[in-house]
Amino acid sequence: MRSFFDPTDGTVIRQPPGEGGGYWAGAPTVWYDASSSMFYLAYRLRRPRGVEPDRGGETRIARSTDGITFDDIWRAEKAQFDSPSIERCALVRARDGRWHHFVSYVDGADGRWRTDRIEAASPETLDPAAREPVFTAGDLGSEGVKDPKIVRFGDVYWMLLSTIPTPDDGSTADAMHGTADIYNTGLSISCSALASSLDLVNWQWHGEVMRPNPASNAWDRYARRIGTVWAEGAMFVGFYDGSANVDENYEERTGVVVSGDLFDFRSLTPDAPTLVSPHTTGSLRYIDVVDVDDKRWYYYEMTRADGGHELRVSMTQCG
Predict the structure, then answer these.
(1) What distance lies between CA 288 and its chain's CA centroid?
(2) Among residues 105, 118, 99, which one has the least CA distance to residue 79?
(3) Greatest Cα pair distance in the chain
(4) Residue 63 CB: number of other CB atoms within 10 A?
(5) What sign results for the dihedral spanned by CA atoms 186, 249, 112, 152?
(6) Per residue in 50-59, pLDDT tens?
(7) I want to staple 136 with a disulfide (CB 3.0 to 4.6 A). Which of 67, 114, 159, 298 is the partner?
(8) Are strands 99-106 and 86-93 parallel, antiparallel or unpaired?
């Protein structure tokens, strides 16, 4: 298994909003707009529970000409979504020039993660009040759907998502969603799912494409969340966030996946993660990959020495 890049050599592009565990800057997705030669970064800021605005308190969009130095151009707070928390979001520019921002957040009505879409002529004019549902847990018969990442191959947009199935042990709604984060209860497992669209508005749900095996002793038996994919010849390669149990929720490490068709993925790292932080929990997660000319950019959230998470970027030559 190749090493891809050295995460400790990466450049810090966003610091968490405080020091110590529970303070994070991360969950990045990046869209490179070739028409303007600009990088657009969507990320979020998080504070520990009880430190207002706690949890995923805000989502931001930043813009860069060089992929390293980003200026914030838009932000929204969780209150604008009537939500206890926001997680990974994804900004995409359609072929017609319109911008679509996909936001995952906890639905304040039922405590389950959902994913909505906001459309605007420019990222600066995105209005959370104009959001429309894309996928809700209720519609899918699941207990949560979040963390969108969108890639385009040919004329088709593909959305990777994290989803969590309903446990079969009769768990009550309060047990699952009373804390507004079933992923942190240990009652179910974190899987990866896929959807597709031709216009970013109308989406077809394809269901699970990768699931952990909780009966195994694997390092990723609790969570397998695919964060990004890219084409290599006739195959698709990607990174995924893995964890062994609920104690490692929020502190996932990175494995590698491969697929021939995007509908079925297998891990190339069944024995151990391939990318970790040298600090504390070793967490390194939410990697996104962007190829521009002959360079490959890796954006990722990484645990630092004080237990907080910072947002970094590393660059290598393609190939």
Answers:
(1) 8
(2) 105
(3) 52
(4) 18
(5) negative
(6) 999 999 999 9
(7) 114
(8) antiparallel
> Could you read off the pLDDT of 240-270 as tens digits, one per residue?
999 999 999 999 999 999 999 999 999 999 9
Judged against a pLDDT cut of 90, whether residue 318 lies above it is answered with no
Domains recognised in the chain with CATH numbers: 9-317 (2.115.10.20)
Q: pLDDT (tens digit, 9 = 90+) per residue, 64-97?
A: 999 999 999 999 999 999 999 999 999 999 999 9
Looking at the DSSP assignment, which residues form a beta bridge with residue 240? 226, 255
Vertex 241: Cα angle to 239 and 246 (nearest 5): 170
Average predicted confidence (pLDDT) for the chain: 97
Phi-psi category of residue 20: left, alpha or beta, with phi > 0 → left and psi -120 to 50 → alpha: left
Q: Do the Cβ atoms of 234 and 260 come closer than 8 Å?
A: yes
- State the DSSP code for 167: P
CA–CA gap between residue 72 and residue 109 (Å, rounded): 30
Q: What DSSP string describes 49-97? A: TTSSS-EEEEEEEEEESSSSS-EEEEEEEGGGGT-S-EEEEEEEE-TTS
Q: What is the pLDDT of residues 116-157, one digit of tens each?
A: 999 999 999 999 999 999 999 999 999 999 999 999 999 999
Contacts of 296 (CB under 8 A, 6+ apart): 289, 290, 315, 316, 317, 318
**How far is CA 77 from each of CA 86, 128, 242, rounded to the nearest angstrom?**
8, 9, 28
Evaluate if residue 302 carries a pLDDT over 70. yes
* Amino acid, single-letter form, for residue 203: W
What is the side-by-side strand order in the sheet with 253-259?
223-232, 235-243, 253-259, 266-267
Sign of the four-CA dihedral 315, 63, 225, 233: negative
